[in-house]
Every structure is written in C-alpha cells, then in structure tokens.
Amino acid sequence: MKKLLKSITYLIFCGVFVAPFFAWADADFENWKKDFEKEALKAGIKKETLDRYVPQIQLLPRVIEQDIKMPEFLQNFWDYTRLRLTPERIAKGQEMMRTYPTWLKRVADKYGVEPQYLVALWGMETNYGTYLGKTKLLNSLGTLAYHPRRRSYFTKELIAYFKILESEPYPPQWGSWDGGFGNFQFMPTTFIAYAVDADGNGTKSLVGSIPDSFASAANFLHAMGWKADQPWGWEVSLKEGFDWEKLHDKTQEVQDWFREGVSPVGIDVFPENEKAIQARLLTPQGADGPFFLVYPNFDYLRRWNGLELYGITTALLADILAGRREAHAYPENFEPIRTETVMKAQEILSKKGYYNGTPDGKLGTKTRSALRHFQRENNLKQDGYLNKETLIIINTY
N or C: which end of the chain has fewer CB within 10 A? Predict the structure, then answer.
C-alpha cells in the first residue's frame, strides 16, 4: 500500500493519472488516429501507406506506465555502474573489439571515432545486440505520440518512422518501448539523418548489419562535433580544501582546473595537448566522490541518453575496453537515497524559500542549486548533494 500511495502521488505531480486516462483513452484513440493521418499527409506520407499501417497501431498501457514510472531509489553512481559495468559486459565488449577489428578501423579512419567508444555505446544500448527490444514500433511510437506528455516529440518520430517504412526495403519492425531500434537504438529521426549503408547492399540496416550499425553511430557522433584528437575526459582527484563554491556550473580550461587543485587519476599531470580544452567538473555523488573532469566529447556520448550517469558509465566502459583503467570497486556499506527522501527534502526546501520547483524525487539542476544555497547558509560543504550532514540539518526543520 505504501508503494502504491507513493506512485499515485508521483502521477499526480506529473499531471497524469493512469486509471482515469485509460478509462477514456480507447474511445479517443481512433479520433487521434484520424488527426495523425491528416498531419502525416501534410508531412508527405502517402495515403496508401497510412491506410496500410495506421489501422495496425495499438494502444499499449504498459508503455505509458513505463514512461512515467517513479523509481524507489535515487539513481546513484555506484548502483548505476555496478549494474552496467559487469565482468560479463566488459568481457563481451573485449570480445567484440577482437571480432570486428576491420570494420571498427574503417569507421574510425572515416569518422574519427575510436573503436572503444562505438563498442561501449553498443554494449550500453543493447548489450552488443543481444537485446534489441520486443515492442512493435508502430505501437510504441503510436502510443507515445497519442499520450499528451510528449505528444509533439513522438508525433515527429512516428511520422519519421512512416518515412522509413516507405523508403527502406527492409524497415525495422521491433524495438524498445520508447521507440528506439537497432544495435544502437536510433530514434526514427536520427535514422533518417545519420544512418549509413556501409556494406553497400542497398539498405540501411541497424538491426542485421554490423557495418551499417558502426558507421551510422560514428556518423552521428561525427556530425555532432566529435573531436577525434580528444578523449571524453578524466576521472580526477581534488586537493584537500577544494573550494566548492567555485565549482558550480563553471567551464574553464583544463590547466585552470589543475591550478585549482584538480588532478587526473593515474598520471601526474594532464597531457600537454589537453591543457587548453574547455572542461567542467562532475560530482555525481557530491563531495564523497568519485569526480570527473569532462571534455566536449562527453556531451556527444550523452546524445543517446541525457543522463549524466549514462555518459559517465559509457565513458568508463570505453576506457576499460581500451585497457586504460579497471571498473570501480563498489564501496562497503553504501546506502542509496530513497526517492521519497528527496521529495521530503524538496518540500522542506520549498517551504524555506530555497526551492521553487515541484517536488518530484529527482536531484536535478533546480534541486542541486537549492541545496547549494542551503548548504552555503548553513556552513556546509556546497556540493549540491543530499549527503548525511545536509540531510540531518534539513530534517531538523
């Protein structure tokens, strides 16, 4: 019952209550299909294509539930990486590096993306193609295009998928619940813009062709601005007494970070050719560490998934596959923070005038900024994280 009440609370915050929504959704779905057909026709989709596929679209309640579900615990670096940087995934990635050296080199030479990044993204997205998704794309994209939460975005993706159905001899039929498909889980608009027929067989297959998959992912990164002469960044250490107040939302040259007490882990100083790169410091677990100084390439990795933790984990996997580091050891006695704890802190910070957002259980930009303000006025280390010391003081209000 407690979990149910928390879920209901979260759905109210989102402005979406699942049961009432689906009470009238079936009746409204057919009307939405008619409206979608009109919009698709304006976008250039042929009527015969719409007549063939639109009647097949089915509404999937589980897709909506997946899209808005509330996690019980706040995502944290240690649990996120432990579930993804497993010995099995690392070993399989090393095997893939050995299995496809020719195509990885061709792609690297053409697009300037080192093999370990492509293999790491492949591992993160579909576990090297072993799980491509089991949801019919017409249904996942159609359901999300119908649902109000992100209707505009997914309507564009659904129209793009119809264009793929018209243009590709063997279009993808199945994918993930959120509409991604293929080895690298491209969205339809990304496929149209960046997919490549690398093996020259007349179709761009991100499901059945490894060459097409590698080349398409590399083409996407290259088009975004990937810098072939730069890594993604470094794990770093901070000197004793590091000035946390100077950290917030700051981007500056690597050499300036070094002067302020930020040093690369594993080597004494940053490489000479990296000292003028603009970088920013990430502290996913606050002052307890670990810490990462990230370069522009880091943000291109996140184009697959906007989560900061996704970008860090993908970058770490790439370094492991390249033989540059090992996975972190999971700390003993680590206690993750519950989502309800974050919501309670947000409510208290809101009442005290530090936070002006809606309590949602997420440690986002607004919440971290509010925490830093609170920490500064209470003489705490300003890491913008719900560390134990901060939680104790917040809970005294």
Answer: N
